[in-house]
Amino acid sequence: MTRQSSLDPIFQPLTVNGLTFKNRIIRSSIGGRIDYYDGSMSGARIAWDTRFARGGVSAIISSNAGIRPDGIAVPGYASIDDDHKVPSWRTLVREIHKHDCRYIIQLHFSGRQRDLARKEYFGMPGMSSTDKPDLVHGLRARRMNPSEIDEVVQAYGRAARRARDAGADGVEIVACNGYLLHQFLSSAINDRTDEYGGGLKARARMLLEVIAAVRAEVGRDYFVSVKLSARDEHNAWTAPFSRTAGNTIDDSVEVSRWLAEAGLDAIHLSQGDTFPHPRIPAGALPADDARHTYNLMYYEGTRVPTTFFLLQFKPFRRLFAWNWGRRMPFRRHGRLVPALIEGMNQADAARIKAASGLTVICVGGWQHAEPIRAALTACHCDIVSIARGLLANPDLVNQFAAGQAGPQKPCTYCNKCAFNALAHPLACYDESRFESREEMFEEAYRVYQEAAAGAH
Ligand SMILES: Cc1cc2nc3c(=O)[nH]c(=O)nc-3n(C[C@H](O)[C@H](O)[C@H](O)COP(=O)(O)O)c2cc1C
Ligand code: SF4
């Protein structure tokens, strides 16, 4: 084992619009209901994020932070929808900075993809580019009018200003995975005929307006990125007979050029038109876990009761798992091949990087040093971001720095963390990675004990 070399591409610093990343690995957003119902931050959030800062990443992207209460996807995540929330974000950022780690706040508005509406919005359709419900859960939607669009655009600006006031090092605007700005961007979702619908430029209009509003509030000298789905041609994965194709990589390449012209600093590359999606987080559909957690969404979408009912029967669980996997290119002979998942978005990242000239952050399955080094050396991306690989091994970057090629107990891409997040603590739930079931739960609850002890 050799220790970190000064030539290792993983450990080359990078400065983007005044923000210096000490190495090329950052933590991607990992949402979990560890804050208070109204979006106030808990000590557990601080303990949770500090865990990754200690583990060596150069920056952390927060879990999705709602910019307005009606756009919160799931209550219980720290939000940034009110000036009163700024002091707690400031406390969190200060803790993270103690570990020479940067902090980026993710600005989020769910639109129709509101998995669990807050009580005051229960039964109300989520605002969207369309009146159509989503294909997966049947979450109800209401088409926004231009003045509602403008109000949300301005709310993004105010949220970005709060992030800067809190001392955060940058913001990331969510325009991927089926959330509001993606509902406008996607040709599969946006069916408008006004100036926000039709051609690609019109569908990108709201996102470009958001960037302008954010820049107007934070200035030009502040790191601003967009999380973008490179393609959503694989939409309709739970609706096998749907013919609606979504945006292609060529569309996203075009959008990335407009984003560069609009003064963006970086693109964080994702995939897919929903969350979760067979390609994000790529891996298995843990149908047994879904069976036990999906009931929480029972009243949210018109399709949920039927799906929930079917999930109670093993043959249907198998059918759902088959449907989830059938469009996924990460299988051989019916089995997941982890090596195919690791770095799965890098070809798209390379295209976006070449076309836009922007800094590109590539997410998707990373957890071994060699594939990361290879992607950085080939200039496919500038930074890699990791969610599950770090959830499983928060000290992964320190392990790389110590010369390890990869973790002893890697993430298995089972996706049990994602499918339990609505109902249970945010944690790794793959028992095979632990000595015992007791050890797994001890680890899952540790963050609360750390928070109580003020151990962060
Ligand atoms: C439990 C869980 C929660 C997540 N929450 C968010 C989120 O709040 N915002 C976001 O943009 N992505 C979220 N993601 C997606 C990740 O940031 C990442 O894009 C995805 O998991 C693929 O990266 P990975 O293969 O390294 O896990 C979440 C993923 C998981 C597993
Ligand atoms: S539950 Fe654990 S092993 Fe499974 S995907 Fe999540 S982090 Fe990886």
Explain how this protein is built:
With 456 residues, the protein is α/β, with parallel strands linked by helices. The chain has one domain: Aldolase class I (TIM Barrel, Alpha-Beta Barrel), CATH 3.20.20. Helices cover 36% and strands 13% of the residues. It has 17 helices and 15 strands. The strands form 4 sheets. Strands 3-4-6-9-10-11-14-15 form an 8-stranded parallel beta barrel, surrounded by 6 helices. A two-stranded antiparallel sheet has the order 1-2. It has a two-stranded parallel ribbon with strand order 7-8. β1 and β2 form a beta hairpin. The model has no long low-confidence stretch (mean pLDDT 93). Bound molecules: flavin mononucleotide and iron/sulfur cluster. Flavin mononucleotide binds next to α14 and α16.
Quick tags:
two-stranded antiparallel sheet; 8-stranded parallel β-barrel; alpha/beta; binds iron/sulfur cluster; binds flavin mononucleotide; 456 residues; globular
Brief overview:
With 456 residues, the chain is an alpha/beta fold.
- Number of contiguous helices: 17
* Uncertain stretches: none
Helix content: 25-40%
Compounds present? flavin mononucleotide, iron/sulfur cluster
Spatial order of the strands forming the largest sheet: 3-4-6-9-10-11-14-15
- Architecture (CATH level 2) name: Alpha-Beta Barrel
Per CATH, the class reads Alpha Beta
- CATH fold description: TIM Barrel
- Mean of pLDDT: 93
Count of all domains:
1
DSSP strand count? 15
* Largest beta-sheet details: 8 strands, parallel, barrel
Output the CATH homologous superfamily.
Aldolase class I
Oligomeric status: single chain
Whole-angstrom Rg: 20 Å
What's the N-to-C terminus distance? 30 Å
* Mass-distribution shape: globular
In terms of DSSP E residues, the strand content is 5-15%
Class derived from helix and strand content: alpha/beta
